[in-house]
Design a protein that fits this description.
Two copies of one chain form a homodimer. By secondary structure, chain A is an alpha/beta fold. In chain A, 41% of the residues lie in helices and 15% in strands. The first copy, chain A, binds a DNA duplex through residues 5-7, 15-19, 21-22, 25, 27-31, 34, 49-50, 52-59.
DNA sequence: AGACCAGATTACAACGTTGTATAAGCGCCG
DNA sequence: CGGCGCTTATACAACGTTGTAATCTGGTCT
């Protein structure tokens, strides 16, 4: 069917199997003329190495898993695309796993119990209990994406969520808003690390501006979907004193929130300024276009792949590292940028 | 590291390696007590089969590739999620490839030249030249998703694009619209099969209603992005007689188009009714929410995986099959459904 | 009671690759 | 001119699994 093996190439080139192997991998020194002949034979036969045979022999499959809560959330789709590209640069293949944010599933994956094929895991955790993660038995090289928790002995790659959230709320304060809501807090105990960090940044910015933090302006959401954002917005609108701005912890939440604001006849940004988080492509096309914290997803992906490869290749016992990627605040209509096509 | 092999289990259970293998695969008959002991040993050691060793021996890796033009397009993200789920039901793992719609890359993947690990390919082609595909050399089990072209000797799984497009335009006609634009036609020669089929359905519906087809109402787009939709809409608005309705070949195009309509102060659906295609989740949250043709993506995915497995397991020479999945027209505000939260 | 049979279990080789150890070729120096 | 060291190429075994064919067991039939 598919074909040529090392052995076939060796016969055609009149050398031993091992020599061909050496040429293919560029491992040992092979004399010029010999290499030429081998390369020609490889070309003529269309030889391609058998990945599983390699895996069996070397223990490396060249496949890394990327586990995300969902693929339909644009942020994760964009992140996954960046990870695939970054992995390709390093000659790795990416296997995407969708966890639905299920803690049990996330733990399973963090323990390498999903597909035994993989060399390592890039996990973007959502519901995972940190203590469960800390106690994981079966150790697979693991890098956590977008969550920071110093209790967990694993590498982290993320942006500075606290600083980014602080910048977002500062921006709203800078617009003169004084009653700033926040959508994305969670009732769960403990709340997701992401929610905690963004909330902390938000409150720091409020404090800087001399504004009091009012819990009533932070309705809890179940998940980070449009529907949750919409529900939270309805809650905020039902208050005696509704907010004049909202900072949403994700663009999806912002999308739902803006939808409700629109239905209630509010003008954005005049009546309500909105800032999102993630800077998904859709943010440019929302009505109005959405100001959003823009993590550098390419850098995030590249750093994550790099960290994972280091963990795979390096000693398993090396101390966990934390790497920060950059971010930006993309200003758009929802906080007053003049309208206009993207 | 990860651990237990068949051999370890065999030693612990006091049987031969092959017997353990038989138990694991449920292949041959194994006596009750023996099976019990083996199962217990498997459990105690946490044994899990080595996928690459299996692959090497059996020729089956249990991995299928899903190649899509892009993952950030919500339609493909949703489709990919469905494919992953459907594959899991059959014990298969999905490897996602992003082609960017590049014909060369698509051909490479269709020929199985991407990752030699895979058992078969699910390809959602975009730019691929049919003749190139028909002439592909290296045969890998292949199922085409969402494109129909009888020249290509490969299995197809898709919805009836012509009928679906006809229904979409019929709906606009039913609203009393008489000047119906269409966004999604392409200048490329030949245009994508998808564009051709949807255009055909559109024209059939126009003909049914006794409306003339006016090419000026069908501006060409480069790709199926929001930006392309926006550009096409500007073109339509610049006409002496702009349309009172548009049928967009994808929801992304519709999103861009509605964005421009909004910027120009048009009321939707009063001044302009809009129908999209794909029924992405975002369609419910657009402002206004978008009426859209809704392919049954779950069914599509399930049928595709089924067809691919049949091709992998069956004889390579079986004649190509075409399977249709269902679709629906989801009615929303953009064509007059009363507004209201989703 | 002896031969036979079916079911249960096992030994062996092979899938394609790479690491280790070894052999072969060859110029250089003592 | 013989031996040494260097470079280049090879033989062999092993990675974990499964298909084939052979072996073993215990019971049944004559």
């Amino acid at each position: 069917m598919s074909g040529a093996r090392l052995k076939d190439v060796a016969e055609r080139a009149g050398v031993s199997i091992k020599t061909v192997s050496n040429v293919v991998r560029g491992a040992a020194r092979v004399a010029g003329p010999t290499r030429e002949r081998v390369l020609r034979a490889i070309d003529e036969l269309g030889y391609r190495p058998h990945p599983s045979a390699r895996h069996l022999r070397t223990g490396r499959s060249g496949v890394i898993a990327l586990a995300v809560p969902e693929l339909v959330a644009p942020y994760f789709a964009e992140l996954a695309t960046c990870v695939i590209a970054a992995a390709k640069e390093s000659g790795q293949t990416v296997l995407i796993e969708v966890t639905d944010g299920d803690p049990a599933e996330e733990l399973r994956i963090a323990c390498g119990l999903s597909d035994p094929l993989i060399d390592g895991v890039l996990l973007s955790p959502l519901g995972l209990d940190q203590t469960a993660l800390a106690a994981r038995e079966r150790r697979v090289p693991l890098v956590l994406l977008g969550e920071r928790d110093y209790e967990v002995p694993a590498d982290h790659v993320l942006i500075d969520n606290v600083a980014a959230a602080r910048d977002a709320t500062r921006h709203l304060v800078g617009l003169g808003r004084r009653r700033i809501g926040v959508i994305g807090w969670q009732h769960d105990e403990p709340p997701h690390a992401t929610a905690q960090q963004r909330m902390q940044g938000h409150r720091e910015a409020l404090a800087e501006a001399g504004l009091a933090y009012d819990p009533v302006l932070a309705p809890a959401v179940g998940a980070y979907t449009r529907a949750d954002g919409a529900a939270a917005m309805r809650e905020l609108r039902a208050l005696p004193q509704p907010p004049d701005a909202v900072f949403c912890f994700t663009d999806m939440l912002a999308s739902g929130a803006m939808r409700v604001a629109h239905d209630e006849g509010l003008a954005i940004p005049e009546d309500l300024a909105v800032v999102g988080f993630d800077d998904i492509q859709e943010a440019r096309y929302m009505v109005p276009s959405l100001t959003s914290v823009a993590p550098d997803k390419q850098e995030l992906a590249r750093l994550a792949v790099k960290a994972l490869l280091a963990r795979i290749e390096g000693p398993a016992e090396a101390p966990p590292t934390t790497v920060l990627a950059g971010y930006d605040l993309a200003l758009r209509e929802s906080t007053g940028l003049a309208p206009g096509g993207p």
